[in-house]
Amino acid sequence: MLDIPANKRLIVALDYDSQKEALALVKKLGDLVGFYKVGWQLFMTSHFDIIEKLAEMEKRIFIDLKMGDIPATIQKALQNMPTKSAHFIELMTLSGLGATVTAARQGASSQDLKFLMLTVLSSMDESDIKGLYGDHADLKKIISFIAEKAINAGCNGLIASGDSVRQIREQFGADPIIVTPGIRPAGADVNDHKRAQTPQQAIINGADYLVVGRPITQADDVVAAAESIISEIQEGLDARAAANKSKPTGNQNSIQEPNSHFATAAG
């Protein structure tokens, strides 16, 4: 997957209150950025109209609604969702990982839609996990468990913070698509992301795509901000390629090239 250009790995989060604001940013960024995430904040005001408009502008779309419910509801929701223009959609599990993925696939209107399972929110750290599940809970073990169940159930990939990407790559190799949120340039405010990483480090760890919101959307110069992050992504790709060359054959799990069908799916 190292052949995917740096700018195509950047997913800009359209975390706005109105469609007008979101589309203004997309127009400003022009051809520099081709992939956008639509989450609850924008979706609640624009619904699927924003998805259709982004598709008309020939942009790739990541629908981040963290879909999780009983299987029947997930299946019907996907049947009623105009997902033909979308590329990625995020799932979370409330009723079993296998059942969730199966229901989503049965309901999807497009065979090209890639399902990504949320591991653990980037706003949660070890103390939050223990507060939620008890003192015995372990963040790394929970991420590993969810990742394994999701991949075995047929998910195309995972949503995982940068600090857990290497762990996932060591466990599964290069096949799963990994989309990493909570990305912050060096020295930037991490906001509510407790496990933030820089673009370069997340890519070095093995992330395929990076989701970036406020460092771009709240920047004085959004184009310059996006260009800077793309530059950091390229630095990460260069470092990853160099590491690949220096590693012995058969010892490249975290950075090796993916199988062909996953490369096609992610690209």
The CATH superfamily title:
Aldolase class I
In percent, how helical is the residue content? 40-55%
CATH fold node name = TIM Barrel
CATH-level-2 architecture: Alpha-Beta Barrel
Please, how many domains? 1
Secondary structure layout:
Layout: E1 10-13, H1 19-29, E2 35-39, H2 40-46, H3 49-56, E3 60-67, H4 71-79, E4 88-91, H5 97-107, E5 114-118, H6 126-133, H7 139-153, E6 157-159, H8 162-172, E7 177-180, H9 199-205, E8 209-212, H10 214-217, H11 222-246, H12 260-266
Parallel strand pairs: 1-2, 1-8, 2-3, 3-4, 4-5, 5-6, 6-7, 7-8
How would you describe what is shown here?
- The chain is of the alpha/beta class and 267 residues long.
- It has a single domain (6-266), classed as Aldolase class I (TIM Barrel), CATH 3.20.20.
- The protein has twelve helices and eight strands.
- It has helices at 19-29, 40-46, 49-56, 71-79, 97-107, 126-133, 139-153, 162-172, 199-205, 214-217, 222-246, 260-266, and strands at 10-13, 35-39, 60-67, 88-91, 114-118, 157-159, 177-180, 209-212.
- The protein has an eight-stranded parallel barrel, surrounded by seven helices.
